[in-house]
Every structure is written in C-alpha cells, then in structure tokens.
Amino acid sequence: MPHASGGRDRWSEPLTELPGDGAAALCAALDEVLDPELPISVMELGLVYGVAFEHGTARVDLTFTATACPCMDFIKQDVCDRLAQEPWVESVEINEVWDPPWTTARISEAGRRKLKRLGVGV
Fold first, then answer.
1. Is 122 inside any structural domain?
2. 51 and which of 13, 26, 73, 105 could share a cystine (Cβ 3.0–4.6 Å)?
3. 35: Cβ contacts below 8 Å, ≥ 6 apart
C-alpha cells in the first residue's frame, strides 16, 4: 500500500535494502515528492540540483522557484519524510542552493507535458 505525506503525496513502498546505486534510488524516491501547488514532482520541476548517498546519509541540493516561495517548508519536509521512509537512509541533509537561480528551463520534458495537460504554459 502506498504511503502518504500529510495527505499530499502518494509514495511507493520503501525498498527493503540499499540498492546498488543509492543516488539513483534517492532520485527515484524524490520523483514521488510533488510540489504542493502543482501535481508535478520536485525532480520534474528541476528543483533538485544534486543528490548523494554516503554512510547512511542522503544529501540533497535543493532550490526553489523563488526566495520567497511559500511552499519551501512543505517541500523540505516532504523531501525529508520521503527519503527517511527508506530503511537504509539514516539521516537526510538538505542544502538550499540559490546559484544558479532556478528557471523554467530546468523543467524536464515529462514535467512540461504534465503542465501542458493542466493548461500551464512554460
């Protein structure tokens, strides 16, 4: 049964063991974390600038669409909650990145298709 974060996101079951590529597994998990305002993931929006996994710690370089984004705390909490769901993740560190600034050019093709279906042009 999928897990939920405060009723906002539906998440897959956690992996039972550490996969061979921890960073790729983190990216797959982050692809389930949705922006609170749009049904598009933080990965598709291009908010994740990088991930690393070492000695049980998941590190995420994360940005936001604006410095005054009202959803920053929700997104950070959902990122932490989703990654902490994995039994092989012992801790989560989020590094806020503001350089380079986020632009719509960072939105993935899959994200652009989703937004277009919603009537949002980018």
1. no
2. 26
3. 41, 42, 45, 47, 71, 75
Question: How far, in Å, CA of 32 to CA of 82, rounded?
Answer: 8
pLDDT of 74-115, one tens digit each? 999 999 999 999 988 999 999 999 999 999 999 999 999 999
Q: What does the alpha-carbon distance between residue 37 and residue 39 come to, in Å, rounded to a whole number?
A: 7
Q: What is the pLDDT of residues 31-47, one digit of tens each?
A: 999 998 888 999 999 99
Domain that holds residue 80: 3-117
Compare 102 and 121 and report the one with higher pLDDT.
102
Tell me whether residue 24 is in a domain.
Answer: yes
DSSP state of 65: S
Query: What is the rounded average pLDDT for all residues in the chain?
Result: 87
CATH of the domain at 42: 3.30.300.130
Give pLDDT, residue 37.
Answer: 85
Asked if residue 62 belongs to a domain, the reply is yes
Can you give the length of the chain in residues? 122
CA distance 115 to 112: 5
